[in-house]
Amino acid sequence: MDSPGRIAGRRWAFGLVVVALLAEMAVAMITTAVEQTPTIDEPVYVGTAVVYLQQHSLRYNPEHPPLGKLIIATGLAFADVHLDPAFDGDQSQLGRRVLYESGNDPARLLLLARLPVIVLTLLFGLVVFLFARDLAGPVGGSAALALYAFSPDVIANGSLATLDVPVAGFVLTSAWLLWRARNRPVLYLPLAGLAFGAALATKMSALAAVPVLPLLIVLSVRNARLAGNFRWGRFAGPVAAVAGVALIAVAVVWVSYLAVDPRLRWATPPDLPAVHGLGVLGDWLPLPRPYRDGLHVQFGFEDQVWGGFLFGRRYFGALWYYLPAALLVKTPLGALALGLAGAVVMVAVRRLRPAAPYVLVPTAVLLIAAMTGSRDLGVRYVIFVPMFLAIAAAGVVALRRRWAYAAVAVLAGFAAVSSLRTFPYYLPYSNEAFGGPAETHLRLHDSNVDWGQDLGRLADRLRQRYPGEPVWLVYKGSGVPSSYGIAAADPLTTPAGQVHGLLAVSDSAAVKADDHLRALLGGSTPIDEVGHSITIYRRP
Questions:
Q1: Average pLDDT, whole number, for the chain?
Q2: Strand-pair partners of 503
Q3: DSSP calls for 482-493
Q4: Of the candidates 309, 305, 306, 375, which has an alpha carbon nearest to the alpha carbon of residue 509?
């Protein structure tokens, strides 16, 4: 038996490992947040958060519940943001007005908006460590945290003022708390309700996990009863537990809306899309009217036909295998191997099998739900996958074999090196099997590679290498080029024969080029690239 001194020494050692991994992740995310200009969605969330703070109005961005934007608002509360109270434009115009047209410093506002999400992402890292430690001890927890902390997709999206990492992290937290409720249900079931309510109050995609919640609650209550930690009846206990967790989750959603506007002022938009099929069930949810109307907006998005791009092929509509294929491209090979191996071990090894419903079932259900969507726009829609797979990877450690420890060390190290090599260009990351971040644009588009984040870097490149040259720009994003000192003309409204000099094109715009842009690119020579998302051409 180890001495108390040795046990304390190990705790300190693992504590230092956790601090080091989270510090590395913080540096990566803060560097990324400082260097990147707005992605496409961020101005809307920033503008909406400002309206929450100043006007206590719910009228903007109803397709997403308020909590994620309230989290963003905690950073913006430290800025003296200027916005004309009489502004009445749409939410895209609102974002542009706040960042670029009201005398605010866009870089400072963005950083303040991103910092709360960065902090939350780091806290979810602690959840990953604790969840995996529960399953496989501190070594397994450290391995899981390493995969999480070096995940390019988690770093990329965790450094943005968006909602994808927060909703995934809250779902993950609820699964971990339900796992712990197997032994202490009175403490952890209410906390799980709070966490799942936070997920529902952040993004409506969390609704796909609702069918999983009763299953996990019943499993936890059943285990607690067998252990003598839950004394309610065999049937009444699980029913009461499910009802209690559901009530707490619903209450969190209501509180998030009331925190914006205690009077809950809301007028249903006249152009609200109609819903069909199972979508009509949303109108019966015991949630605020703005939430239910927001569901109509989301179903309206799903009824649209969106364009996609996968492995060099442009298409319209949605491919059911798009998200698994994109994950295959954008997940470090070491993390992919460990996560899948851990999932197999978790099902095959009896002492780990009880954890499978808490780790694998939410992942599978949410992934299947996302695969049925109509928007093939990026792995951010399934950012929960690398989070849960990091925990599943701890199952390999739980085998307690020397070869397993060696395999985990090698594969986790490989994933870390792959991540470090892409610094600070995490958004366009792809693994070595697909050519790395420089070739991601050949296989994927949109938020997988080019989400408008490199406008500032383009401005720096033009000043440093091409001063004084005429610039033509095709930019896919929400930033305003002139705000970064880019004086560029629009080649899409000019005959190709009159376009001479530098032509800068967002890679996502290039893969969706019309005949005119294709003709421009065909007569141009690529001479430079910026952030693996914008290509600079020279036209004679």
A1: 94
A2: 472, 537
A3: GGGT--EE-GGG
A4: 309
